[in-house]
Write a sequence for this structure.
């Protein structure tokens, strides 16, 4: 099936792309919604401009749409964007990275229904610990690019998550009541490497900004760098990568 | 001797990793007992008889593929294995026993208030009015031999139970924040 993945550049939507490809679907494009409002209910906020680099590394076309980020308008903007994509890309369904948020799932399911599209939520109801360990086991390299909760202090901003950090996030759920997957906006992530990436993202310049409990790492400059040869994906083995000519022909 | 297990039947049209993760795995995670999964297209009488209980999963809102499978699954009525149907599974069990399927005026998506109509051990832990996650565009009438346990403003048959057999159908998704219903069913 030809699908569009709602893509924020964070761990959940990047994993959704991975799973859609693994299931044998054709990911026609990624859709990133960039909200002007920092309090957006539906969309990931920081570093949306950096989704372009991720899409480039995965060699999947990206549609980047600006939205006000206001509660009702952002819904309409998403619907409008998907309507256009349905027409131009001939997609049959959308894929989201929704895990536990009924708010998010309800809106995505409703939009998909209104547009006559299938809606896939492959991470739905995944347990936080299992979800994190699955990501790390698959080789995802995930950086926290914003934090906004008690317990997530300066040492967490910009941190690349490891198994030990996952245990600490789970412990923070018990002590501070935060969602270990950050679905309540406690933190937001940026995937710098994933099995689907042909090249890894190296952050070259960034600026940290703090407002009370809320810290944001603004990525100012980043580039794609070659991955070590030993790294291979379980989806498309590195050596079987099609030539540029073949890839263009396929498109 | 084989360990007892619950068989979860994937009711989605296609055997696809994405839908399996969305509709089957959450049920599996809700269970505290061993389970196996099978796609509905592969389900055989021997599978049903070998399991301790069967749970039919839900499927995508746009997916009505299960409807055309019903005539080929009539043999399920001859099996005494306890059965729980969730969403599409609820509609499938309802159709097997003569219930009529229809399109809802408006699909039900999201967190919804439901009301208990009759007392039953499976819902004993819930308040008279409780909330549940819904994702369905069809409705199923209550077949002969079943009684309604739960209803909502838009659907008179949110949960039904067979009067004699251990067969239960739920239109909402208990695997989302109402897991206790699934756990009680297999206990």
């Amino acid at each position: 099936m030809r699908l569009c993945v709602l893509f924020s550049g964070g761990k959940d939507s990047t994993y959704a792309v991975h799973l859609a490809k693994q299931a044998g679907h054709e990911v026609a494009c990624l859709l990133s919604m960039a909200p002007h409002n920092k309090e957006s209910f539906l969309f990931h906020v920081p570093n949306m401009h950096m989704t372009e680099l991720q899409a480039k590394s995965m060699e999947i076309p990206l549609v980047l749409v600006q939205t006000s980020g206001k509660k009702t308008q952002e819904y309409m903007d998403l619907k409008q964007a998907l309507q256009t994509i349905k027409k131009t890309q001939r997609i049959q369904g959308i894929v989201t990275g929704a895990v536990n948020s009924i708010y998010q799932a309800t809106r995505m399911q409703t939009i998909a229904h209104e547009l006559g599209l299938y809606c896939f939520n492959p991470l739905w109801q995944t347990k936080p610990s299992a979800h994190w360990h699955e990501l790390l086991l698959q080789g995802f390299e995930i950086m926290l690019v914003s934090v906004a909760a008690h317990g997530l202090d300066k040492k967490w901003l910009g941190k690349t998550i490891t198994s030990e950090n996952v245990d600490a996030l789970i412990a923070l759920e018990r002590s501070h009541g935060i969602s270990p997957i950050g679905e309540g906006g406690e933190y937001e992530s940026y995937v710098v490497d994933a099995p689907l990436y042909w090249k890894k993202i190296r952050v070259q310049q960034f600026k940290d900004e703090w407002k009370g409990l809320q810290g944001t790492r603004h990525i100012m400059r980043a580039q794609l760098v070659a991955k070590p040869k030993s790294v291979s994906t379980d989806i498309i083995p590195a050596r079987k990568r099609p030539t540029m000519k073949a890839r263009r022909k396929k498109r | 001797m084989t360990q007892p297990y619950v068989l979860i039947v994937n009711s989605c049209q296609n055997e696809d990793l994405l839908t399996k993760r969305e509709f089957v795995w959450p049920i599996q995670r809700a269970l505290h007992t061993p389970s196996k999964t099978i796609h509905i297209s592969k389900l055989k009488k021997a599978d049903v008889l070998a399991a301790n209980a069967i749970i039919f999963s839900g499927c995508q809102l746009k997916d009505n593929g299960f409807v055309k499978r019903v005539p080929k699954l009539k043999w399920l009525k001859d099996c005494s294995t306890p059965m729980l149907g969730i969403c599409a599974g609820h509609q499938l069990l309802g159709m097997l026993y003569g219930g009529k399927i229809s399109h809802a005026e408006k699909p039900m998506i999201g967190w919804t208030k439901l009301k208990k109509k009759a007392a039953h051990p499976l819902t004993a832990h819930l308040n008279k009015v409780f909330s549940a996650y819904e994702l369905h565009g069809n409705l199923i009438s209550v077949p002969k031999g079943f009684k309604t346990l739960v209803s909502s403003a838009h659907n008179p048959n949110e949960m039904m139970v067979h009067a004699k057999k251990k067969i239960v159908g739920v239109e909402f998704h208990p695997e989302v924040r109402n897991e206790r219903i699934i756990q009680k069913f297999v206990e």
The mean pLDDT of chain A is 89. The longest strand of chain A covers residues 199-211.
